[in-house]
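Minutes, structural biology subgroup

Action item carried over from last meeting: produce the structure token record for RNA polymerase sigma factor (Lysinibacillus macroides). EB confirmed the sequence was re-checked against the source entry. Recorded below for completeness.
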Amino acid sequence: MDQEKQQAITSLFEVVSSIERKWANEWNNHNALGFSKSHILILDYLAQEGPKRPSAIAERLKVTTGGVTVLTTKLINAGFIEKTQHATDRRASQLVITPEGETILAESRQQVSAIINNMFGMLTAEELQTLRTIFSKCLLDVDSNQPK
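Output recorded by EB:
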């Protein structure tokens, strides 16, 4: 790789890291709900896909099943999800979002929208699509051209 490209990649890494920090700071500063992004991602996944086993949630969030246990315990205790028996395998449990979880998810979506608008609202639809295309390309596995 030539020097110019290496410098451009280093600069890009710094910018992406700064955006990630800004996103986290915005979330922490405006998060009136007291839940992490991972908690909200779990609620969203269950709302979109229906009941799921903890292993499916772990795979989706790219965390360990132990990590899912920690995250879901807080959501269960708050009444936002419930643990139930799997429909076809009584030995397995699955998690399902509750009506209260749906309500908190709707509130969090409003917060996320405000954060996204604050961070990216100055960009045109075309610029946003270009960013998405570029970042999606960066996530492709080089060997298989499939998302990692």
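Discussion: DSSP finds six helices and two strands in the chain.
Next step: EB to file the record with the rest of the batch.
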